[in-house]
Amino acid sequence: MRKSYLAIPLLASAVVVAALAAVYPVNTDFSTANPEWNGLADFTQEMRAVEGPLAALASLYDPRNYTLFIIGPSKSFSQQEAAAVKSFLARGGTVVIMDDFGTANQLLSLLEAPARFSGGLLLDPLLNQGHPALPVAYWGSSRLALNYATTLNLTACRSARVIATSSPFSYIDLNLNNRYDEGEPTGPFPVAVELSYGPGKLVLVADSSLLINSMIHREQNARLALYLAGGRTPAVDNSHWEENLHAEVKKLLLRAWLVASSPEVKYSLAASLAIAALAIGRTHFKRG
Amino acid sequence: MRRLAPLLLILALLTQVYAQPAIPRHVNPEQLKPITPDPAILTAVYESLSRAFLAENFSGVAYLASTLLNLSAPSDLKFILDRFHSLIQEEGALLNYSKAGLEAARQLALQGRALEALAHLENVTLHLAKANITYLSLADAARAIRGRVGAETGGLLQSLLKLIGTYARRLNETGMLLGANLTDTQLTLSITPTTAWVGSRVLAYGYLRTWQGDPLPHRRVVLVLEGREVAEATTDEQGYYSLALQAPYIYVERVHLLAMYLPSGDDFYKYKPATSPNATLYLLFVTPNITLSIHPDVVLPGDTIELRVSLDAPVPVVDAYAFGEHFQLQVLNGSAALTLSVPADALEGRYVVVVSSPANGTIAPASARGTVTVRKLSLNISQLQVPMLLSPLTTTAAVCVSSEGEPTPYLVEVSIPSAGVQASKTSSSACTQVEITPGALTPTGPLEGTIAVQPLDPRYKPAYARFQVYNLNLILVALAMALVLSTLSAYLRVRARGGRPQAKEEEEKPAVTPLVVPETSPPRAEAEAAPPEPVESGDPVVREYFRAVKLVESATGVRMKPSHTISEYLSETWSRLGKAGEVFREISRLAEDRLYGDIPVDANKLRYLVSALEKILKEQQP
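^ Those are the sequences you sent over. The predicted structure of the assembly is below.
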């Protein structure tokens, strides 16, 4: 009897926690389900983007209809994922990699691409969005708002088309003291470039936060998103972001739901419920 | 170990802190307060502006000023900075207008269009006056900026003052020019010979005179070739000048020269400048004919091609450019050859090959171009068999590849992302088999996958195919069947027990157990020691029911088993009880009410019924 008294509140708590986890939006960086300042919900909704694991997107989606977006990766890339991206590019696809201090250089090295993210913090003490770490970049005559960005190292590139550069007042803060020191490289630096990769195109943007909810509507960032997508549907990789417990629980619930939706589970549950209902009805009838 | 646990926990936390990246990925811009611009940076920008003003680079000034209008600062300070920078922009525009007006006025004055020149000068006077007023505002704003931000603007203000002074001086000079009665001048230029080999010497000569024909001796005449000043000469007593010029190494049919006289010093207010008519110099040079042949012109990556170059001019070397590489070819007897290999990573398409010979004295540069088409042999997935998947068991997919050329080794990559399948295998035979193991929790249903055949030989191009396959998850099927079977068996058990749910039976088991185990009533001591239950074995109703059971057992010979329920025992004995059956059924019902329904039962009534049962059973005994 004591066990049953404990089981009911525990079960109820689990249901409530699961329901809250399912209903409450996640707040992890770059999550497409995150409507807070650091999520990609606005970008996903406005661009009608699709999301999924990188290998699945790169292997299954048609490059004529989709542009692959790898935004702010924090987890390392596998050989298989790199092979999938290569095949997407080989089919004439466009892959946009937006990173600053993440793991995209590892993917670039697996792809044998000649460009790299420099990893130095780009600061602009003059032309910024209120803080030197929120520098302004120039895309033709349009301005872009960056947020803790880096620069691109193109020294090994034989040819690259520079899409956007930082201002002449920008510099790389090598010692992270938020101040320009003698010898620190000064701008303008390339912050967005396009590289030919066989029949495909590799676009590198040196800021992972350009399209997050708090940045996408600043300056011409939204227009750049449209330009990067190139008239195709953005397919956003969601398999290289660090996730918190809430996001993990949500993912687990989704997987459970998927498994429960499979025909064998669905129909067996239905049959079991029918039998149980019959038994209850019979008992009730007998006793009544 | 327990003592170590907190230490390990702290260590893990510290590791987490240390593992955090030093630079955040981003910050919430809404939560940041604009900070005051760095005074050192602002000072440096004002220095750049100062230099641009001094160089009369007003485009640069406009660009820098408009850039400064976009800088961020706290709102109170931003107003001051924006006003200062817009004033700089205005000052730049006013000085630019002044400069342009002065130049226009001077040209008009030299042409004798005094009224028009005067109108320009009036505008310039107005612009300079405005610039002077703006300067005063700038000086005031500069003091505020120095006080609030700490940026130095002294150099910029000095440059502005200097430029305003310069333009004021030029304004005066141009005014004087208008008042002066300038004499027209004329300048001639001839070349001999008029046709020359490139690099050879020609003589340029002419006269500088007043419009009335008076020679102007000891004046400087400048020669301009194709827009560039190339030489200068001084006139003699007769106003004659001459100089030897080298025909330029420009490989064009003709070039144009002209002479210019620009009065300076005292001449500035006496003579008008003069420009000679154009003199044409025809140039001679040799243009080599280059022919380029490429064999073969359709190739595969890794193949070799041969370039053959022939020239009809004595050129020692020619340059060749192919596939992004530069080659130098020695020319012997008017021909050169080069064998080069097509890069293995070359993509399909047309490539341009250029051969050029450099200029060499009287020999002009020349070039020829040809094209090479790089193609790749195609691979085709001729057959693809992916049988139904039975996750988590391994299945084998069969892939057959046909190639345009001879069979080539290749890498087959099978990918079914939703099943977590990423399998690959290298093969060189026409058909190969790839093992696929879907994930244990892959749902049952159709799955989409892709297959990529990557040739290991760069001469071939890869092939891709998509497929659909049905997956049946054996684990889920087994679990589903177990669920259905267990529910079914539970149902059957309930049905066999007369519709009483098992759960209820089990819940009340402790109360029933002492009732069904003993053949006689349980010992008093045990009954007393038993834990308190809703219905105790010492309950009068229970006691009476068991008295009735004993009577029935002895009358019918059917013993009540521990597994018997009250109703089951009644069913088994009913047929043997005869008239007593009705009484025993009533006793059983009352016992069930007490035991299972928790309904109060009158023990006296039950005692009476048991006595009645005993009486009837005695009567029925033979």
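Residues 185-284 of chain B form a domain with the Immunoglobulin-like fold (CATH 2.60.40.10). The mean pLDDT of chain B is 85.

Shout if you want it in another format.
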